Amino acid sequence: MLLTAAECAERIGVTVRGLRTYEQRGLLTPTRSAKGWRLYGEKEIARLHEVLALKRFGLSLSRIAALLEGRAIDLDRTLGMQQSALTEQRQRIGEKLALVGAARTKLSTGGTLSLDELITLAKETTMTQTSLDLIAQRRYEQARPRKMTPIDPELYDRYVGAYQFDAIRGGITITRNDDRLFSQVTGQAAYEIFPESETEFFLKVVPAQLVFSVDRDQTANALTIHQNGVELVARRIDETEARRAEEELARRIRENRPQPDSEEAIRRTIDEARCGEVESTRMTEPLATLARERAEAIAEELSAKGELKDIRFVGVGVDGWDVYRAQFEKSETEWRIDLAPDGRVRGLFFRTLP
């Protein structure tokens, strides 16, 4: 089935002029009838859906054109991006409604709202675009194909060194091997990174990019990893500090010593997750954002496992994360957790054991 421009515009909710603008920008390529009329079929409608979705996330048409240039239609990616944003939006609206409901209940019983409660209501019930919109937008950008741009390998020396993450445990080490540059996150293998420009690099093994910040003396002082919709900053540290951090991690792994309060954090997180709750003040921002995105799915998965029976410490992983086994009525799970120096959870992962 093919639609004319007028039919397509009416059924989608755009204007014919808008369709022509998208065509002029190279975003749409409708087929033509024998008489030269523009015709829109499934392929064109799917591409139009991608364009409109990215436009709603605040991207300009030029930016959308750059993102989609040379790419096949990936409707599933776009729908996943929209689903994540809508799920987060639904959860946030539920939280706002609960706050308003609690305030009205208090007022109906003759109570009054304190200054702190009024401030919380004003702040938390403001209808702003959710952070998950930005996460989805970043994921789309990070997953696009990258093209290697040859640069002078002598520039690699400015990036070589150790970097410490701000928001998560561990760091990343950049090394050079002749005309090749490698990155190695603590506890992981080293992978080659490839230049897009003099300061921007990408990995081929996963959809991730590294962007270096360079001082006036042309030495990198920090780098930012772009992956999974999140941006993580790592600051350059000297070799002595890097070696001290590695020694402390090795000592804790050797002694099999858990981080203080990690078991309590696991128990609290499981209790909250089973109810679909995310206490963002107890998490670093990157983790809190991802947790809010998956809150509903995790609550459903954990509820299906039955009541929590027991939690026991297993050991410290090679990456410094504490490993626990949580026994539920119907299955056993493995949990890995990492805490920031201030006690907030900055890394969390779980899986169901066979």
From TrEMBL:
SMART domains: HTH_MERR. The keyword Nucleotide-binding does not apply. One of its GO terms (molecular function) is DNA-binding transcription factor activity. Residues 2-70 form the HTH merR-type domain. It comes from the Bacteria. It holds the Pfam family MerR_1. Keywords: DNA-binding, Repressor, Transcription, Transcription regulation. The keyword Repressor applies. PANTHER family: MERR-FAMILY TRANSCRIPTIONAL REGULATOR, REDOX-CYCLING DRUG-SENSING TRANSCRIPTIONAL ACTIVATOR SOXR. This is Transcriptional regulator.
